[in-house]
Specification:
- It holds the Pfam family HSP20.
- The protein has 139 residues and is mainly beta.
- It has a domain of 74 residues: Immunoglobulin-like (Sandwich), CATH 2.60.40.790.
- It has two helices and seven strands.
- It is elongated, with a radius of gyration of 24 Å.
- The strands form two sheets. A four-stranded antiparallel sheet has the order 1-2-7-6, with no helix packed on it.
């Protein structure tokens, strides 16, 4: 039996056309489109096969993290009711975006429809400079 040369194996894994199914799995499952308008960012994240109750979004230390979890069991029975096949899937994926420490959970709006999570994230609003000087009392 001939084994492939070490050079062949090294080149195989460095080949840009070699598909690595588990590399960056979350970014492949949770594809996101990000749009910018004058006062916010709009994120549309694809989550096919997930239900609204499977999805959680949280904000911590300036990072917005979306997590999708699924636990499902599929059974197939023959005409007599005997189980022929039973498959289970349990898994989760998550993806994080840095949105800044100034935002709170109330600032971010989220909606889920037709397998797409829609997030509206306001841009950081610069604080207005006060026109009238305010003096600091000196004791």
């Amino acid at each position: 039996m001939l084994l492939p040369s070490r050079n062949f194996i090294d080149n195989f894994f460095n080949d840009p056309f070699f598909e690595r199914p588990f590399e960056h799995a979350a970014s492949q499952i949770m594809k996101a489109d990000i749009h910018e308008n004058d006062n916010s960012y709009l994120v549309e994240m694809e989550l096919p096969g997930y239900k609204k109750e499977d999805i959680k979004a949280d904000l911590k230390d300036g990072y917005l993290t979306v997590t999708a979890s699924k636990n499902e069991t599929k059974e197939e029975h023959d005409s007599r009711g005997k189980c022929i096949r039973k498959e289970r899937y349990t898994g989760s994926c998550n993806r994080s975006f840095y949105v800044g420490k100034e935002l709170t959970q109330e600032d971010i709006k989220a909606a889920f429809s037709d397998g797409v999570l829609h997030l509206s994230i306001p841009k950081e609003v610069p604080k207005a400079i006060e026109e009238q000087p305010r003096y600091i009392a000196i004791e």
